[in-house]
């Protein structure tokens, strides 16, 4: 059933272009209407929303962190993202005009389910983004958008993450349109860019040879750091989580701007630092700041592994290794920049002789709080 792949994880990483395409399929009509799978929310309910809370755990939480940037940018509604296990117990301020978005691959994560139940008790509307038909979280939600990733067997989440991002973008666009913040043609333009993403993800996958070689090299590292800005920050967190859970290595993701507030002390000669560089065509200020951060860590001896947009040759002098990804609009970039980090973690874990699909101490679905 691994279809010729060594691990389910490798197979699932490779399925990502298809998974993203399926999640996009048939969602938007010519008139811009979005099709949710089960909707017990009216457009008026969505127009009344004055605050969005995203709740999730682990990788799904990182998808939520990316979504915050897109949702606030497109809808202008304040959006917060919170770990489900924290949200539930801090008495969040919620009412019927709050939209709570619960993101869960399995639909059975107890922390997320308890957060959702708490939200419903406070009369908030709940929208689930879920990969598992008929699971508990979508059953208890007011509306559901299913990700069409297909079954994810490996404990480490990969294709679920990319499809969750895709679903979050769709929710953001739909909200923006229903509320009149974006016109149908503007939404259509973003959808067109989204529809180009499966081919871009495929292009990244086809260029992973050097990442595999690099992985063998990094397998003995004591610690790997990841830095990013804007949507590249949650990508850095996700890269670090993958490495922790699969390779059992110390790995940490940081907002690059935070480096000088403490973490830069961690850098020793040879410390690998994976740097997720924003597109130079998008928010170029951010990209320039990230390039300065690369220079800062390099000056302290870091070995820099730079993920940058094709054509951004100016990063090359500061990179010990460069991984180029196709040009992509800033908000959608995590769909391509995450992929090399998944491959890196999978290959490092394999080089260290670990069970890639079944890392120690972990379960695929965490049904206890
Ligand atoms: O099924 P869920 O999306 O609710 O699961 C949430 C986390 O347990 C999950 O993403 C976990 O962090 C993964 N093992 C990460 O690869």
From TrEMBL:
Cellular compartment(s): Cytoplasm
| Subunit comment | Homodimer.
Catalytic class of the enzyme: transferase
Keyword terms, alphabetized: Aminotransferase, Cytoplasm, Glutamine amidotransferase, Repeat, Transferase
By which gene is this protein encoded? glmS
Protein's UniProt keywords contain Transferase: yes
> What is the organism field in this record?
Virgisporangium aliadipatigenens
Function, as annotated, reads:
Catalyzes the first step in hexosamine metabolism, converting fructose-6P into glucosamine-6P using glutamine as a nitrogen source.
Which residues are annotated as active site? 364 (for fru-6p isomerization activity)
Segments forming domain SIS? 42-181, 214-359
Q: Which GO terms describe its cellular component?
A: cytosol
Q: What is its EC number?
A: 2.6.1.16
Q: What is its main location?
A: cytoplasm
Identify this protein by name.
Glutamine--fructose-6-phosphate aminotransferase [isomerizing]
Give the catalytic activity.
D-fructose 6-phosphate + L-glutamine = D-glucosamine 6-phosphate + L-glutamate
Report the record's Gene Ontology biological process terms: carbohydrate metabolic process; fructose 6-phosphate metabolic process; protein N-linked glycosylation; UDP-N-acetylglucosamine metabolic process
> Which Gene Ontology terms cover its molecular function?
carbohydrate derivative binding; glutamine-fructose-6-phosphate transaminase (isomerizing) activity
Whole-protein residues included:
244 to 612 of 612
């Amino acid at each position: 059933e691994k279809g010729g792949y060594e691990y389910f994880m490798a197979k699932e990483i490779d399925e990502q272009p298809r998974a993203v395409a399926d999640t996009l399929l048939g969602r938007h009509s010519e008139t811009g209407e979005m099709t949710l799978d089960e909707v017990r929310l009216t457009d008026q309910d969505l127009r009344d929303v004055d605050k969005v809370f995203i709740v999730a755990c682990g990788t799904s939480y990182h998808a939520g962190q990316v979504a915050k940037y897109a949702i606030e940018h497109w809808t202008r509604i304040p959006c917060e993202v919170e770990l489900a296990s924290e949200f539930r117990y801090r008495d969040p301020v919620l009412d019927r005009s709050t939209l709570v978005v619960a993101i869960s691959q399995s639909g059975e994560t107890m922390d997320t389910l308890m957060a959702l139940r708490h939200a419903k008790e406070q009369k908030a509307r709940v929208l689930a983004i879920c990969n598992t038909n008929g699971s508990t979280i979508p059953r208890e939600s007011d509306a559901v958008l299913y990700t069409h990733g297909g079954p994810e067997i490996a404990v480490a989440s990969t294709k679920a993450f990319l499809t969750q991002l895709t679903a979050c973008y769709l929710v953001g666009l739909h909200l923006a349109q229903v509320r009149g913040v974006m016109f149908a043609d503007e939404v259509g333009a973003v959808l067109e860019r989204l529809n180009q993403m499966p081919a871009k993800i495929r292009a990244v996958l086809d260029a992973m040879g050097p990442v595999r070689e690099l992985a063998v090299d990094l397998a003995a590292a004591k610690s790997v750091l990841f830095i990013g800005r804007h949507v590249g920050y949650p990508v850095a967190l996700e890269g670090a989580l993958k490495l922790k859970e699969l390779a059992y290595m110390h790995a940490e993701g940081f907002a690059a701007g935070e480096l000088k507030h403490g973490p830069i002390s961690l850098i020793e000669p040879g410390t690998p630092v994976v740097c997720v560089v924003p597109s130079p065509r998008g928010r170029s200020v951010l990209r320039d700041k990230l390039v300065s951060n690369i220079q800062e860590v390099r000056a302290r001896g870091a070995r820099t592994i730079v993920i940058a947009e094709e054509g951004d040759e100016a990063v090359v002098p500061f990179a010990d290794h460069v991984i180029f990804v196709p040009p992509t609009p800033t908000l959608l970039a995590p769909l391509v920049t995450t992929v090399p980090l998944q491959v890196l973690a999978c290959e490092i874990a394999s080089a260290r002789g670990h069970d890639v699909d079944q890392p120690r101490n972990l379960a695929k679905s965490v049904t206890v709080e």
